[in-house]
Design goal:
By secondary structure, this protein is an alpha/beta fold. It has 22 helices and ten strands. The protein starts with 19 loop residues before the first helix and ends in a 9-residue tail after the last helix.
């Protein structure tokens, strides 16, 4: 497992914290595409609120008029009206739930795709600094945690707020004095709920960070590589204990989040539940003194409306707490959406027509970090003619792989430029550049899918015949054909059902399907045994024929036939020439060659 110190951590400056109004505007903007549907929900909510306050007035008429006067016909109509109001209200509730849930899920979809698409545009440097589990947690846990907020909370807020307004208006119409008594404590309740919301927001931020840490731990330790490392190093038990500690901390945070302000919110509910008793008590005392405040029907109707007020009020306060909690999740999502795209497609990208494949490095400088004291690459001047081959050799850390990453624009140069067919790669569209340059790296990545699906990742519309042709060129067809399910065989997590050489040849077959004019080979055979290396090298020779090829070489025996060999040292070109020229010069290349095969004369290697 990688140490926490190398994962990406957002800046924690106070001035970076979004101001609530700005964050609210941004959240509301998520719902803007669905204004029409939300307007319909608002109308349904308003209609539902109006219908819900009709029943108490019908009840007052039942108690004060229909029953005392024995008007059975009126009683039947009033009772039927109360039932009809309940039915209509239920229909309105179902419709508003359907529409609001649909809108909420679309907003969730928009958020997920926005984050995923934005991360696809991030540079390779971002992913080298960020744990994969952290990224997965933002998409799964953070956005998933907002589901109830964006699907039902908005509707609940509008519905409850409308119900509260309608209930207050109806209560004032019945008796303004009782209404004032009922609303005296409401400001205190609002203040309490805001305090609870802020408290839960802080705990939620801690909880999501812990979830991200757990996701990273699971992703790293339960992958095939993680299991192999843990067992071979005898660390399985310690990894389990570490996960147990993280899980225990998460459980404590969940309890804290659940219990934060619970007693205070319950106190509000107790007070509100006791208010009808207070109203009945006050009305009873007044009636006993010979001066009744209101009629029995009005009193019962008022208490019914009061309950209709308190239920949405409690729900409104609880929803407010939930919304404040969700602000922490929105902040984490917006944090990713606000990450600057270091490598962006130009506003007016150049599309290459027929690609010949000439590559040039013109005064190239590169630093991974602006504060880096010494550049990783400095003053690189190279020309790789179309169809020719260049081998890049040097000590570990000399900048070989970095040089190769600049051609497909996995990183941008910090000085000079890299061109393909005379066009700066920073001016090319991403599509055009990906068609021009193919990369086969030392660490082959295969998806947990079938062999055919892995190959078609390079060319989704490739026919079966094209798959077979590419596999034959990469000398892997016979191996695939010998499998029980052939090209439908699952390769397993990261391709662990195949050997290192087989995975490399599958990667080569995938690149052959892509058919790029420029080919980058980043130490593609360095981890293979001699026999497997020869098989893979034959496949590479087939793939490289007629293409511009830049090979990052670990074993110098594989680059003798290169048209040019460049020797890098501490990011600078120290030698350039053919194998024979560099051997005759007896310089850095010759020294590297002697170190590799000290017992063989240089001219016979």
């Amino acid at each position: 497992m990688r140490p926490d110190g190398i994962r990406w951590t957002p800046p924690a400056r106070a001035e970076d914290e979004p101001r609530p109004p700005a964050q609210w505007r941004r959240i509301l903007a998520l719902f803007r595409p669905y204004t029409g549907r939300l307007t319909t929900v608002g109308l349904l909510v308003a209609a539902s609120a109006v219908v819900s306050v009709i029943s108490p007035f019908l009840l007052r008429a039942v108690l004060d008029t229909a029953i005392p006067q024995g008007r059975t016909g009126l009683l039947s109509l009033l009772a039927l009206g109360m039932v009809a109001a309940a039915v209509v209200n239920s229909i309105f509730n179902v419709l508003q739930t359907l529409i609001s849930t649909t809108v909420g899920q679309r907003v969730m979809h928009d958020l997920r795709t926005a984050v995923y698409s934005h991360l696809q545009r991030m540079s390779l440097a971002f992913f080298t600094r960020t744990r994969t589990g952290e990224v997965q947690s933002r998409i799964a846990n953070d956005i998933g945690g907002m589901q109830s907020t964006v699907t039902s909370t908005a509707t609940s807020l509008v519905s409850n707020f409308t119900s509260v307004i309608a209930s207050v208006v109806a209560m004032v119409a019945l008796d303004w004095r009782l209404t004032v008594v009922s609303l005296l404590l409401l400001p205190v309740f609002v203040w309490i709920s805001r305090r609870v919301g802020n408290e839960r927001k802080k705990i939620t931020t801690e909880r999501q960070k812990q979830l991200a840490a757990m996701s990273s731990a699971v992703q790293e330790s339960l992958s095939v590589s993680g299991i192999l490392l843990g067992r071979t190093m005898g660390r399985s038990d310690s990894l389990a204990k570490e996960f147990t500690g993280q899980s225990d901390e998460l459980a404590e945070l969940e309890v804290r989040a659940s219990m934060a302000g619970r007693w205070r919110m319950n106190t509000i509910q107790i007070v509100m539940a006791a208010m009808p008793a207070v109203i009945y008590w006050a009305a009873g005392l007044a009636a006993a003194g010979g001066s009744p405040i209101v009629s029995v029907g009005t009193l019962v109707a008022f208490v019914s409306l009061q309950q209709g007020l308190f239920r949405p009020t409690v729900s409104l306060l609880s929803t407010g707490v939930q919304v404040q909690t969700s602000l922490a999740l929105f902040h984490r999502i917006f944090e990713y959406l606000d990450l600057p795209v270091e490598i962006a497609e130009p506003e007016r990208p150049v599309e290459l027509g027929r690609i010949t494949g000439e590559v040039r490095f013109e005064g190239v400088d590169f630093r991974y970090d602006p504060d880096q004291e010494r550049p990783t690459l400095s003053g690189i001047e190279l020309k790789v003619p179309a169809g020719s081959s260049l081998a890049v050799v040097g000590e570990t850390g000399s900048g070989k792989t970095t040089l190769s990453y600049l051609v497909p624009r996995l990183y941008d140069v910090t000085g000079g430029r890299v061109t393909v067919d005379g066009v700066d790669v920073r001016e090319l569209s991403f599509e055009s550049l990906s068609r021009a340059v193919g990369v086969v790296s030392q660490e082959t990545y295969l998806f947990h899918a079938s062999v055919a699906d892995n190959l078609r990742f390079a060319k989704p519309d490739a026919s079966d015949a094209e798959l077979v042709a590419a596999a034959e060129a990469a000398q892997i067809h016979d191996t695939i054909a010998g499998l029980p399910d052939g090209y439908d065989t699952l390769v397993g997590e990261r391709g662990y059902r195949f050997s290192g050489g087989e995975k490399q040849r599958l990667a080569l077959a995938r690149t052959i399907l892509r058919n790029p004019p420029v080919l980058i080979l980043d130490e593609a055979t360095s981890a293979l045994d001699n026999r497997t290396e020869r098989a893979v090298q034959q496949a590479i020779d087939t793939l490289a024929a007629g293409r511009t090829t830049i090979t990052i070489a670990h074993r110098l025996s594989t680059v003798r036939s290169a048209d040019q060999i460049v020797v890098l040292d501490r990011g600078e070109v120290v030698e350039l020439g053919t194998h024979d020229q560099l051997v005759e010069a007896d310089g850095r290349y010759a020294a590297l060659l002697r170190r590799e095969v000290p017992a063989v004369p240089l001219g016979r290697v």
